[in-house]
User: Fold this.
Amino acid sequence: MTSRRWLDRMLNVESRVVYGIMGLAALVPLLIPGFVLPVTVTAPVRRVYDAVEALAPGAPVFVVMDFDPSVDPEMTPMAVAFLEHCFRRRLRVTGMTLWPQGVTLGLENMRRAARHTYREALADAGGGDGAVLGREVEVAAREGEDWVYLGTQPGG
Assistant:
């Protein structure tokens, strides 16, 4: 019966107390200097990275972004990171989706990755805020030349 009483007590805890504990759990690691959680690279991620690294510049890459707004916060960072990796390697990327709900998400991911890669090229050349300081900067990913997005292609 003690487990039942403990459960009843927990159900009666005021929500402000619960939120306070959750806030402390999130803040304490940020306030402790040197608190770092380990980041491990899994085998599937290593294989994808190595496969992209093994491709010669100019090689074609076909990316299918079959996701919709409900999973956008989870999938977009991964898609943009993969696309940026491809653009930095100067690969020619073709993107599409089979889901009509994800057409704009896929296009925005392609454009976002190309913009990030372009900013990196500017920073590497010593430019800032669009200034190149007299140096020629090759844009890392140009829409229609280095990458294309086909939108949705109905499947069957």
